[in-house]
Structures are given as structure tokens and as C-alpha cells.
Design brief:
The chain is 28% helix and 50% strand. The chain is an alpha+beta fold. A hairpin with a 2-residue loop joins strand 5 and strand 6 (123-133).
Length: 137
């Protein structure tokens, strides 16, 4: 059996963080999405580059919103696993990304997130989040 690290409360808070991340970006609640990251947090993807800190993350959301062309998207996160060591940790999950426009739904990407987690001011947040899309390595 795998070694499970962290308290049950910490683990549940991290699961909620992963869900909140997907729900906020899918519903264009970009301020709440930025709040999923530490103050010096970093988001990095092959398509959109690397963005750091609240200002950089907000810049990313503007670029991202423009790229959607009015489509609704869904980030589906599965197979979440993470290891905690005190107030930091690492996480990994699969990503299925859907694009919905004009009554048509397309699966646009499959990949994974590689994360560094940190408890900051009593809350678990992403210190860094890297998107790795299958076929883009």
C-alpha cells in the first residue's frame, strides 16, 4: 500500500483546490483562478508560455480568454495523486480539455499537470503548475 502523507484535512483541501482551479477558469472567474496560486506562483504551458505572480497570472487570463473565441471550455481533472512534506508537496493529475462552441463539443487536448504545492497563510495553493500535453514533449 502506498504511503499517504498529510492530514485528511490537508488532503481534502488540496482536492478542493484542484476542483476550484478547473471550475474557476472554466467559468471565467479569473480572480478566483489567480487566488489558487501563491503570491509568487507560476503557471506554465507549451501554448501560452510561463507566467509568474498575480500580475503575470492575470496577463495569462487575458490571453487565454481571447484565445477561446467565445467558446465554453471544460477542464476535466482525473487520477489525482500528491505527496506532502509538512507545508509543501508535489502533485500530478491527468487533464482532458473540451472546447464547446456552436453546439459542437471537441476534445481538444489530453495531458497532465505537474504541480508544486505550498501551504501559505493556512491555505494549500499551487506554487507552480505546469501543463504537459500529450504529443507536445
Amino acid at each position: 500500500m502506498a504511503n499517504i502523507s498529510g492530514t485528511l484535512e490537508d488532503r481534502e483541501e488540496i482536492r478542493e483546490l484542484y476542483a476550484r482551479y478547473a471550475m474557476t477558469i472554466d467559468n471565467a472567474d479569473y480572480d478566483a483562478w489567480v487566488d489558487c496560486f501563491t503570491e509568487d506562483g507560476t503557471f506554465e504551458s507549451t501554448r501560452f508560455g510561463k507566467h509568474t505572480g498575480a500580475q503575470g497570472l492575470r496577463r495569462f487570463t487575458a490571453i487565454y480568454r481571447e484565445s477561446l473565441g467565445g467558446a465554453q471550455v471544460r477542464h476535466v481533472i482525473t487520477n489525482l495523486t500528491f505527496q506532502l512534506d509538512g507545508e509543501s508537496g508535489t502533485g500530478n493529475c491527468y487533464l482532458l480539455y473540451y472546447h464547446c462552441k456552436d453546439m459542437k463539443v471537441q476534445q481538444m487536448a489530453v495531458g497532465q499537470y505537474r504541480d508544486r504545492l505550498r501551504k501559505s497563510n493556512g491555505k494549500w495553493l499551487f506554487e507552480s503548475r505546469q501543463v504537459i500535453l500529450d504529443g507536445h514533449r
